[in-house]
Amino acid sequence: MEWIVVLGILVLIALFVAGLYNSLVRLRQQVKNAWSQIDVQLKRRYDLIPNLVETAKGYLKHERETLEAVVKARQMAIDASTVKDQIAAENMLTSTLRSLFAVAEAYPDLKANQNMIALQEELASTENKIGFARQFYNDQVMHYNTRRETFPTVLLAGMFGFGPEEFFEIELEAERAAPKVQF
Fold first, then answer.
1. Which of 45, 56, 119, 122 is spaced 20 to 30 Å from 129 by Cα?
2. Does 180 reside within a domain?
3. Is the bond preceding 50 in cis, omega lying within 30 degrees of 0?
4. Do 30 and 144 contact (CB within 8 A), yes or no?
5. What end-to-end distance do the CA atoms of the chain give, in Å?
6. Is the peptide bond before 108 cis (omega within 30 degrees of 0)?
7. Would the pTM count as exceeding 0.85?
8. In angstroms, rounded to a whole number, what is the distance separating the alpha carbons of residues 11 and 110?
9. CATH number at residue 49
10. CB–CB of 31/144 below 8 Å?
11. What is the pLDDT of residues 135-166, one digit of tens each?
12. Closest CA to 49 of 27, 67, 36, 31
């Protein structure tokens, strides 16, 4: 009779450990899915940028440095291999795109160009989608990291190789500041 009780306790412990393990696997997959959603939107952004640059080239002959910075930042973002590198590259790309739009504002002909307007609207829409995807990713990372670090999961997470995930954070302090609006 005692061995049945011991066996029952061992089965309950095994089921409990399996449940914790499965919940960590599910949360890790949700984090990966959230990151892939960011990738989808970033791919869309990368595809739009060459069209935007080509449209602007004819008008911005004197702003070659700005265009080259956008192209270089795009390539760095495409080549990034880790989440940390991707975050840094994306922050740089966002900054260079802002510079391009600021330059475009200075050229009335370019600002009025229908292709440029359509591309800017498409890129703005994509930027919003990227923002939502980043927020979703960070929410998933928070859920995963919280689960991984709470008791009793913390006792098993390291043993099964579940490490922390990184949040998608702004690295440039200037991007954290509220924009100044002047009329």
1. 56
2. no
3. no
4. yes
5. 84
6. no
7. no
8. 70
9. 1.20.1440.20
10. yes
11. 999 999 999 999 999 999 999 998 999 999 99
12. 67
Q: Which domain holds residue 46?
A: 2-163
d(CA 33, CA 22): 16
And the tokens for 10? 């061992």
Contact status, residue 150 vs residue 143, Cβ threshold 8 Å? no
Rg, C-alpha atoms of the chain: 24
- The tokens of 139 are what? 């929410």
Tell me how far apart the alpha carbons of residues 72 and 93 are, in angstroms, rounded to a whole number: 9
Q: With respect to residue 172, please indicate whether it lies within any of the assigned structural domains.
A: no
**Does 169 map to a domain?**
no
Other Cβ atoms closer than 10 A to 38: 22
169 against 142, higher pLDDT: 142
Q: Name the domain count of the chain.
A: 1
How far apart are alpha carbons 115 and 106 in whole angstroms? 17
C-alpha–C-alpha distance, residues 45 and 31, integer Å: 21
47 pLDDT more than 90: no
Euclidean distance between CA atoms 27 and 139, whole angstroms: 11
Residue 163 in contact with residue 139, Cβ under 8 Å? no
Positive or negative CA dihedral for 6, 12, 15, 19?
A: negative
